[in-house]
Amino acid sequence: MSSEQHYGQDKALQWRLYRSPARPSPTDLALYAAHIEPSGGFLLLGSTPELRSLARRHDKPLTAVDASVEAYRALEALVTVPGEERFVCSNWLEMDLGETFELVLGDGVINMLPPALHPALLERVAAHTRPGGLFILHAHAVTEPEMATPEEVIRWYRTSGMELYTATANHMCALWANPADGGVPTPDFLLRYRQLLDDGVIDPEEYRDVEAMLQGDALTLYLVDVDRVRALAGPFFELEAIHYSDDYGCPQAKPFLLLRRR
Ligand SMILES: C[S@@+](CC[C@H](N)C(=O)[O-])C[C@H]1O[C@@H](n2cnc3c(N)ncnc32)[C@H](O)[C@@H]1O
Q1: What per-residue confidence (pLDDT) applies to 164?
Q2: Among 14, 115, 207, 244, who pairs with 197 as Cys (CB 3.0-4.6 Å)?
């Protein structure tokens, strides 16, 4: 199956340049931590170092599943708590671990897959979530643009006190996603910021920050429709709550769906 989106080892090492909402923010991590179940271990989809640290900090056994052993290994350098975990190299759509988990974490995971593959992902996650267990699906979502133009977003960013990417990425996704499938190819996204530089809307220093983070990244982010995900998940999961972070722009564009396994 050719559904895996990889960044190479260099890109994985660039994780340290990533800013929220591309990686979990402090409030995101607090939201994850608040939902750690008293018993049982975690299943982590992907290699997110902050979530590997979280599991180790709480002394929870962790199984991480990623299609790229290189990304998993490279990100080990950014895991801040000593310890161990089990790693399984597999496409999430084909994973078959032979056990179920109390807690499954997927940060930006569904966004790696085009909409046609979302049913298969939810089915595989359900197969690995214990009845009564929790799947925390933190996803980039389609939202109505809050502002009509990128220039307006940039004017707001200048009053926000946040870094450019953290303040603007969600707002820009709302403006720039392909309406057909929610797709936001990273190279196009970076080009749009380049255009803002060329038009004098952002400064070279502001652009360099975004460029350092995104250059060479070939991933496409597929924004999800929350109502559709809820409907697809419905046979397996009940939507218990939706939470939002408060430390990046347009937080409603990156909801935490707390999905309780039926
Ligand atoms: C931008 S991240 C998204 C996931 C998450 N934020 C993480 O890394 O933990 C990309 C990571 O997801 C992995 N990945 C992408 N598509 C995958 C798939 N279908 N199955 C398994 N891993 C996948 C890549 O190998 C890479 O390590």
Answers
A1: 98
A2: 207
Nearest-CA residue for ligand 1 atom 15 is: 5
Mutate which of 1, 2, 3, 5 for ligand 1 pocket (most atoms within 8 A of beta carbon): 5
C-alpha 246/C-alpha 200 separation (Å) is 29
pTM for the model = 0.95
Taking residue 130's Cβ as centre, other Cβ atoms within 10 Å add up to 16
Ligand 1 atom closest to the Cα of residue 51 is: 9
Query: Is residue 112 lining ligand 1, measured as CB closer than 6 Å?
Result: yes
Fold of domain 9-141+223-261: Rossmann fold (3.40.50)
What value does the mean pLDDT take over residues 136-150? 98
Q: Amino acid letter at 104? A: V
Structural domain boundaries in the chain: 9-141+223-261, 150-222
pLDDT tens by residue, 39-84: 788 999 999 999 999 999 999 999 999 999 988 998 998 999 999 9
